[in-house]
Amino acid sequence: MSPPSSPTLDEIKAALEQGAFVFYYQPKVSFVTGRITGGEALLRWRKPDGGIVPPGVFIPIAEAAGFISTITERMFPRLIADWQRIKELAADSHVAFNVSPKDLERQELVQMIESSLDSGAIKSEALRIEVTEAAALSGSETMRAVVQKLVDRGVQFAMDDFGTGYASLDAMRRLPFSVLKVDQSIVREMGQSERSAMLVHANISLAQVLGVEAVAEGIETQDIYETLLHSGCSEGQGYYMSRPLPLDDYLTMLGKAPTWPRSHAGLLRAVLMNHVIELRRVMDWMYSAQSAATHNRQKAPLPLSDRRLSAFVNWYEGHGNALRGNRAFEAMRLPNEILNETYDTIRTQVAEGKGPEALAGQLSKLAHYSVVLMGDLLRLESELLLQEMREQHGA
Ligand code: G
Ligand code: MN
Predict the structure, then answer these.
(1) How far apart are CA 62 and CA 58, in angstroms?
(2) Per the confidence metrics, is the pTM higher than 0.85?
(3) Does 165 contact ligand 1 (Cβ within 6 A)?
(4) Ligand 1 site-directed mutation target among 187, 225, 239, most atoms within 8 Å of CB
(5) Around Cβ 129, how many Cβ atoms within 10 Å?
(6) 19 torsion bin: left (phi>0), alpha (psi -120 to 50), beta (else)
(7) How far apart are CA 89 and CA 84, in angstroms?
(8) Which ligand neighbours the alpha carbon of 29 most closely?
(9) 201 CA to middle of ligand 2, Å?
(10) Is the CB of 103 under 6 A from ligand 1?
(11) Closest CA to 218 of 261, 179, 180, 185
(12) What burial class does residue 342 get, using C-beta atoms within 10 Å of its C-beta: 0-12 exposed, 13-18 middle, 19+ buried?
């Protein structure tokens, strides 16, 4: 097969006019439940002879010619139309849509997104927007305001190809991402390169410290799937589970509701480790706030300003819910409440300028309940691992 020759801009325009662009959907799978959580819509150009042109061949040309936003704006209604069929089968799933840096600078796309949310054609929780670091970095103030407005409505932003650019971290700082997609090139190399494997794990830890979900792309083998199962990554995507599929095939797949190996223990392990990091942050903050008060300097901002930024709380009230009814899980209700209360009290006391004596009591309470919590988490983790091993053994 000869490589496809580059299309001209006129050919791209004609293809768009003729409705030759379609979305393929690649499922994403939850490592926690083993089920499909949603799909990423990927643009494909369907040739009259049935051939498929991958986006790498025409997107750069459209982008260079300033034509990309026209494509995005013409394809968004298509996405919403496809979604009406997808949601019949998987109402709780999501659909992820890729946008270019330029798209979010324009009112057209944003208005279309908002009116689909307003009309109820798609719920905000069901919509994920994937942008690369370039989008986050090139963004103007207007674009940031637009993203914030959508985030406030509940739309999630995912940072695509994380870890390959120059400034993925800077991009994380600039836009309110809630998902980090670990780039497929490092995930694919995990099996051969220890360094790539370490980088994947480092990126997953980074996501957890930032309180965002990690999604691994480019999972091509069962080995890599299983390595990631206990890594604290929440979702995966790749050829091992499924290639991107034409809409009808994706719907068939959703109808069959396939499952892959799952593990509760993975996220739990990450929560345990992050809890320790979190305690250190609270303690460091108390220390620096006290020092600032003594020397009349400005206080550092409060850590854990949002409950969800606490690794444990985020898990307990989120993914952990799947374990409702489990005794070890239920036993964590009290330490969870006390932990939250203690964080609140510490914040108030520091804000009021209370001295170390007043804080000492809270600190020892925090330490005490953290130990209880970590014991509970460890017990639950080993219980779940054993259960998962038994299931595997019997399978
Ligand atoms: O840039 P982004 O991450 O959105 O790219 C998704 C692209 O990666 C799609 O075109 C899709 O076909 C491709 N892709 C998805 N999963 C895999 C995989 O497991 N291996 C490889 N080589 N490519 C993949
Ligand atoms: Mn993507």
Answers:
(1) 6
(2) yes
(3) no
(4) 239
(5) 23
(6) left
(7) 9
(8) 1
(9) 20
(10) no
(11) 185
(12) buried
Confidence grade of residue 3 (pLDDT, cut at 50, 70, 90): low
Residue 282: enclosing H or E segment and its boundaries? helix 265-294
The residue with tokens 């009808």 is: 248
Whose CA is closest to atom 9 on ligand 1?
42
What's the rounded Cα separation, in Å, for the pair 212 and 234?
10
Residue type, 35: R
Q: Name residue 149's amino acid.
A: K
**Amino acid found at 245:** L
d(CA 233, CA 28): 12
Write out the E strands in the chain.
21-30, 36-46, 52-53, 94-98, 127-131, 156-162, 179-182, 213-216, 235-236, 245-246
Ligand 1 site, residue 42, Cβ cutoff 6 A: yes
Provide the token pair at 69: 């936003």
pLDDT 10s digits, 166-197: 788 888 888 899 999 999 999 999 999 999 99
Q: Among candidates 70, 79, 77, which has minimal Cα distance to 17?
A: 70
